[in-house]
């Protein structure tokens, strides 16, 4: 009975899933762009809600559900932005309290 010799173990190859450790950090422009887009979206929702509210008051609105949905969307989006801001301020204050 012949037994085949054990071959050497081949080295593992990088999968490309993780970035190499030497990559430079980003400058934060992607985060700033995403945050600016989110704020612009909230402003757009607020403007839509205001327009539909004016139409409801003046009697030009045909579908009250649209105004209600727009108002609710704007309120939820504004509450979300407020929560993110508060959490960011809390994180900043926590970092400032850290001792080196």
UniProtKB/TrEMBL annotation:
Q: From which domain of life does this come?
A: Bacteria
**Major site of localization recorded for this protein:** other
Database matches in InterPro entries:
FliE (IPR001624)
Which PANTHER family does the entry mention?
A: FLAGELLAR HOOK-BASAL BODY COMPLEX PROTEIN FLIE, PTHR34653
Q: Which gene encodes it?
A: fliE
Keywords from UniProt, A to Z, are:
Bacterial flagellum, Cell projection, Cilium, Flagellum
| Cellular localisation | Bacterial flagellum basal body
Q: Which residues form a coiled coil?
A: none
Renumbered to this chain, region (Disordered) spans 1-20
The organism is Paeniglutamicibacter psychrophenolicus
Family of this protein = Belongs to the FliE family.
Is Repeat among this UniProt entry's keywords? no
What name does the UniProt record give this protein? Answer: Flagellar hook-basal body complex protein FliE
Q: Per the record, a Pfam family?
A: FliE
**Does the UniProt entry include the keyword Transferase?**
no
């Amino acid at each position: 009975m012949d037994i085949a010799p054990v071959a050497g173990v081949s080295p593992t190859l990088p999968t490309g899933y993780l970035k190499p450790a030497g990559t430079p950090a980003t400058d934060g422009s992607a985060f700033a762009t995403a945050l600016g887009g989110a704020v612009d979206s909230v402003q757009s929702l607020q403007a839509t809600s205001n327009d539909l509210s004016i139409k409801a008051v003046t009697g030009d609105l045909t579908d009250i559900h649209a105004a209600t949905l727009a108002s609710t969307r704007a309120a939820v989006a504004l509450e979300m932005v407020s929560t993110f801001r508060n959490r960011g301020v809390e994180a900043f204050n926590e970092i400032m309290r850290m001792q080196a």
